[in-house]
């Protein structure tokens, strides 16, 4: 039978420790005594470190044992990285930590700071995907804990760095907008944010951009107390990291302080780790802790290292085992005998094995409904009459003439007033993005916000959408209500994983225990005249539609935009939800539908909101032709319907505000009894919501389906100049589609 690398590592530890039996010389030292000369680490700290490292090691061993028995589903381990336990020991359990998947030593060291924690059993429940797993509820193996301030994430490509930076950035700003008492109590004033990742991940554009953003802010003397912990084992699965690559890149980086610590030998590394943590805590400055490690047992249980490493190379790495090094130091210092080390090794091994066996018997998910429970997105919405005191303060804020008393205006102005109202009402609301401050945004939608609420709440970011969304996630963690702006819909695709892989997944991976509320405003869709090209006229949001748990909304007129924005902010605030609001650029300044000024709207009363899933109805209720559309499509459809009404053709429009999820019941109800349904979808024909709407109708009506036709954008990027007019639905093409059905 072949001997596994686990057996090799285990045997080397036992043999190396056992070989020192005859050399052991006991020394009488107290827990608080220094273990070494010229180092501050105490005997007690060294003994604790060994326990944390052994626990992490045995978790890796048992994960593989359980996998062989069909009870575990995750074998990416921390073996060789256990030096990160030193970071866990030097930081507090109130320091938020966004962890790399090899940060097991850190997790067990941190858990020791909170009496009553059960990290071994909790981790085993996670390994076995039990629904009793206290962090993810059996949905994924993640490091995470509410009480330990560790939000869970998979961290596969360093995608967690932007949100870690966001939290560090906003922890320093809790008192600039309002006193967030609950957050301030949870995270003391001098807290730091810990973010660990691997040397291969540091090359990913997400990591490069995130670290750049932290340095960019620090360079301008803005405090960003984040401790980057690069756990450098020299490999990305099978690809070597060039020697000195990480050091050369980050040792002399503007805005960043660099520390290099030995993660394989705590005698040389422990104090340096402490210095790095202390520097970050005192200076409130991005700090890069380069922790050298090795990777034992391969990338994961399925990784055959011999395919890309020689046996000699594998054994040379195993000889650098940091857990063995810790044990040898304790023996050589005379504070722990070889037998005591082996006894502790066996004790922890049996404890982990017992926990693993028990976890393997615990229940798992048996229905899709239980798996999906944290992704629910049905929110309560109701109009609330503001009290007199609030209304009086609000009137004063508006200098005696609130916007509902102003004349009707176009969408851009109404959204602007709506954002001002939201920032006035919600003291922790933040508006940020590219050009949103003094300039007021490309389309002046955020004009005056900077002047009225200040740089603490309305500010420009660097030009990086990944950073903008990462800041938003971090702001939510820090107790704020972020309203980030993505300047154009096309720019979202540069950074969409921050919504897909991070923001939307947090409640899923934490079983609803963590949330990162946000309302992402995106200027989008096409139809801009005289200014085009696909970056500024992007008409596809298909990439958003398959992201579980988020809500995507839009509006065709200013009044709907205001009430919908209010509801979105309320849902984000109360449920921690992620909402994406696509604002149709071409309708921002539109005032006329068919008559002068008839598309301007009055500003809705301050207590008015929009119920979740609500749709709009226009036209003749008894018409047998139904048009279904949204945003620009609704606007154009109303124009076409006006033209047809002059010819005696009756039509009804269903105006969708919710693009994800679609209101199936409203669509089916509106189509009931109709002879024809014309779906006007300004986005591309392929992967558009028109396909989903058609499917809803076919499934609902079976053999009695009304005739369905679609008027869609072509499967193309939007061209410059006037050529775009041939690629998108228009007043004329919608007219012809409806007229064709009316003539049948």
Shape: elongated
* CATH topology description of the largest domain: Rossmann fold
Low-confidence stretches: none
- For the record, give the distance between the C-alpha atoms at the N and C termini, rounded to a whole number: 77 Å
How many β-strand runs? 19
- CATH class of the largest domain, named Alpha Beta
If you compute it from the alpha carbons, what radius of gyration comes out, rounded to the nearest whole angstrom? Answer: 30 Å
Number of domains: 3
CATH architecture of the largest domain: 3-Layer(aba) Sandwich
Largest sheet: 7 strands, mixed
Strand content: 5-15%
- In oligomeric terms, what are we looking at? single chain
The CATH superfamily of the largest domain bears the name: Thiamin diphosphate (ThDP)-binding fold, Pyr/PP domains
Q: What's the rounded overall pLDDT mean?
A: 94
Question: Percentage of helical residues?
Answer: 25-40%
Helix/strand-derived category reads alpha/beta
Widest sheet: strand order?
9-8-10-11-13-12-17
Number of helices: 28
Descriptive account of the structure:
The model has no long low-confidence stretch (mean pLDDT 94). The chain contains 28 helices and 19 strands. Helix 19 (465-477) packs parallel to helix 21 and helix 25 packs across helix 28 (731-742). The chain has three domains: 13-361, 3-Layer(aba) Sandwich (Rossmann fold); 376-587, Rossmann fold, CATH 3.40.50; 615-742, Rossmann fold. A seven-stranded mixed beta sheet has the order 9-8-10-11-13-12-17, with helices on both faces. It starts with a helix and ends with a helix. It is of the alpha/beta class. Strand 6 (257-262), helix 11 and strand 7 form a beta-alpha-beta unit. The relative contact order is 0.09.
């Amino acid at each position: 039978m072949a001997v596994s690398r686990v057996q090799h590592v285990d045997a080397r530890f036992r043999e190396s420790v056992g070989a020192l039996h005859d050399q052991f010389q006991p020394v009488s030292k107290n827990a608080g005594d220094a273990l070494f000369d010229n180092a501050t680490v105490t005997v007690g700290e060294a003994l604790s470190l060994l326990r944390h490292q052994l626990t992490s090691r045995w978790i890796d061993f048992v994960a593989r044992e359980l996998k062989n028995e069909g009870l575990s589903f995750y074998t990416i381990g921390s073996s060789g990285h256990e030096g990160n336990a030193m970071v866990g020991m030097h930081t507090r359990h109130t320091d938020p930590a966004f962890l790399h998947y090899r940060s097991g030593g850190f997790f067990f060291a941190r858990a020791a700071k909170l009496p009553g924690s059960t990290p071994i059993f909790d981790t085993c429940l996670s390994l076995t995907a039990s629904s009793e797993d206290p962090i993810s509820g059996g949905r994924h193996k993640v490091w995470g804990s509410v009480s330990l301030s560790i939000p869970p994430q998979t961290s596969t490509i360093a995608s967690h760095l932007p949100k870690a930076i966001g939290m560090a950035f906003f922890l320093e700003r809790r008192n600039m907008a309002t006193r967030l008492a609950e957050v301030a109590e949870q995270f003391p004033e001098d807290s730091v944010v810990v973010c660990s990742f691997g040397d291969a991940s540091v090359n990913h554009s997400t990591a490069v951009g995130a670290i750049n953003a932290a340095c960019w802010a620090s360079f301008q003397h803005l405090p960003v107390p984040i401790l980057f912990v690069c756990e450098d084992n020299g490999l990305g699965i099978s690809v070597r990291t060039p020697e000195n690559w990480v050091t050369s890149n980050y040792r002399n980086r503007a805005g960043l302080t660099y520390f290099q610590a030995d993660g394989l030998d705590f005698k040389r590394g422990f104090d340096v780790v402490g210095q790095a943590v202390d520097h970050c805590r005192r200076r409130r400055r991005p700090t890069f802790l380069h922790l050298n490690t090795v990777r034992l047992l391969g990338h994961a249980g399925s990784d055959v290292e011999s395919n890309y490493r020689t046996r000699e190379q594998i054994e040379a790495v195993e000889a650098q085992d940091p857990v063995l090094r810790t044990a040898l130091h304790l023996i050589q210092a005379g504070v722990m005998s070889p037998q005591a080390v082996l006894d502790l090794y066996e004790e922890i091994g049996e404890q982990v094995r017992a926990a693993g066996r028990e976890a393997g018997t615990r229940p798992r998910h048996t229905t899709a409904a239980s798996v999906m429970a944290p992704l629910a997105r049905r929110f309560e919405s109701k109009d609330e009459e503001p009290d007199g005191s609030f209304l009086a303060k609000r009137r004063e804020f508006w200098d005696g003439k609130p916007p509902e008393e102003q004349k009707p205006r176009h969408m851009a102005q109404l959204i602007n007033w709506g954002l001002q109202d939201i920032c006035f009402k919600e003291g922790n609301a933040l508006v940020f993005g590219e050009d949103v401050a003094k300039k007021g945004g490309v389309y002046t939608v955020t004009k005056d916000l900077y002047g009225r609420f200040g740089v603490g709440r309305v500010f420009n970011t660097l030009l990086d959408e990944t950073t903008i969304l990462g800041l938003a996630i971090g702001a939510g963690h820090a107790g704020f209500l972020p309203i980030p702006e993505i300047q154009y819909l096309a720019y979202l695709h540069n950074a969409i994983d921050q919504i897909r892989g991070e923001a939307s997944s947090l409640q899923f991976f934490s079983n609803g225990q963590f949330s990162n509320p946000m309302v992402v405003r995106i200027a989008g869709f096409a139809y801009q005249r005289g200014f085009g090209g696909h970056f500024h006229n992007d008409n596809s949001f298909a990439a958003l539609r398959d992201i579980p748990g988020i809500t995507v909304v839009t509006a065709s007129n200013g009044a709907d935009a205001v009430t919908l924005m209010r509801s979105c902010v309320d849902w984000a605030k109360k449920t921690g939800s992620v909402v994406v609001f696509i604002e149709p650029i071409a309708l921002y300044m539109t005032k006329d539908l068919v008559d002068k000024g008839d598309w301007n709207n009055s500003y809705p009363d301050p207590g008015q909101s929009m119920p979740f899933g609500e749709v709009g109805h226009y036209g003749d209720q008894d018409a047998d032709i139904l048009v279904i559309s949204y945003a620009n499509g609704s606007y154009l459809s109303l124009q076409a319907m006006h033209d047809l009404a002059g010819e005696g053709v009756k039509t009804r429009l269903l105006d969708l505000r919710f693009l994800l999820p679609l209101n199936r019941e409203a669509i089916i109800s509106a189509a009931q009894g109709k002879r024809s349904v014309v779906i006007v979808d300004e986005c591309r024909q392929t992967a558009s919501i028109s396909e989903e709407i058609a499917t809803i109708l076919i499934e609902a009506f079976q053999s009695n389906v009304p005739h369905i036709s679609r008027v869609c954008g072509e499967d193309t990027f939007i061209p410059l100049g006037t050529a775009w007019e041939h690629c998108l639905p228009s007043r004329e093409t919608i007219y012809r589609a409806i007229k064709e059905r009316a003539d049948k």
